[in-house]
């Protein structure tokens, strides 16, 4: 396999992981339907740049360092889980409101940065992506893979923002917003509890 083949395989692996439904994609979809294209695009940009930061850290070997520092990993997982629980609360409050609530805790560039920077699992996903996309004979290729994958993340997240900010999608949201926000609250809550649980279980096993 050539270096180019490895790079393309790494990008394909990253694209599948990035496009798969999860808290980040959920926030983009919810924000696009509730607030429109611009806030969703800013959120998508923040999410993508945060992924790029984790990618650079993974390329520098931070994943190994983090795995060897259980206290730091536990703290990051608790903080990340806590932020997801806050998103669950915000979505639940919106679902319970009689009036449409356009303001979202997960709207804007800063919210995107916080959401993905508070997810330490990203560095381990990056470590796997870099392992797939970087041949042993050319380890420096990781420094090309990361920026290309970050650009790909912008395209993927921005694509979700574009699709779900369409007028038809926003009208559908207006008709069913309580159901959508309620489901979002449940998913954010489950994801947050799972992240905290994962951190606590890991800490107990290492104790």
From TrEMBL:
Primary location group: membrane
Pfam families cross-referenced by the UniProt entry: LysE
Keyword Mitochondrion among record annotations: no
Membrane topology: Multi-pass membrane protein
Transmembrane portions of the chain: 42-67, 74-92, 141-163, 184-204
Assigned keywords, A-Z: Cell membrane, Membrane, Transmembrane, Transmembrane helix
Record InterPro entries: LeuE-type
Superkingdom of the organism of origin: Bacteria
Localization annotation: Cell membrane
PANTHER family for the chain: ARGININE EXPORTER PROTEIN ARGO, ARGININE EXPORTER PROTEIN ARGO-RELATED
Protein name from the UniProt record: LysE family transporter
Classification of source organism: Bacteria, Pseudomonadati, Pseudomonadota, Alphaproteobacteria, Rhodobacterales
């Amino acid at each position: 396999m050539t270096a180019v083949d490895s790079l393309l395989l790494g990008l394909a692996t990253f694209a599948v992981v990035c496009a798969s439904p999860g808290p980040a994609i959920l926030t983009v979809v919810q924000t696009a339907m509730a607030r429109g294209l611009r806030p969703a695009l800013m959120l998508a940009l923040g999410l993508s740049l945060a992924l790029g930061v984790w990618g650079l850290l993974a390329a520098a070997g931070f994943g190994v360092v983090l795995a060897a520092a259980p206290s730091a990993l536990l703290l990051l997982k608790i903080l990340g889980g806590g932020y997801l629980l806050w998103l669950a609360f915000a979505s639940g409050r919106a679902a319970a409101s009689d009036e449409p609530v356009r303001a979202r805790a997960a709207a804007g560039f800063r919210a995107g940065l916080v959401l993905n920077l508070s997810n330490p699992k990203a560095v381990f996903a990056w470590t796997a992506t870099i392992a797939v996309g970087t041949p042993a004979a050319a380890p420096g290729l990781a420094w090309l893979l990361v920026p290309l994958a970050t650009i790909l993340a912008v395209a993927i997240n921005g694509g979700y923002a574009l699709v779900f900010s369409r007028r038809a999608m926003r009208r559908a949201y207006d008709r069913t917003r309580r159901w959508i926000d309620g489901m979002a609250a449940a998913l954010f809550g489950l994801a947050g509890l799972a992240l905290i649980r994962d951190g606590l279980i890991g800490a107990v096993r290492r104790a």
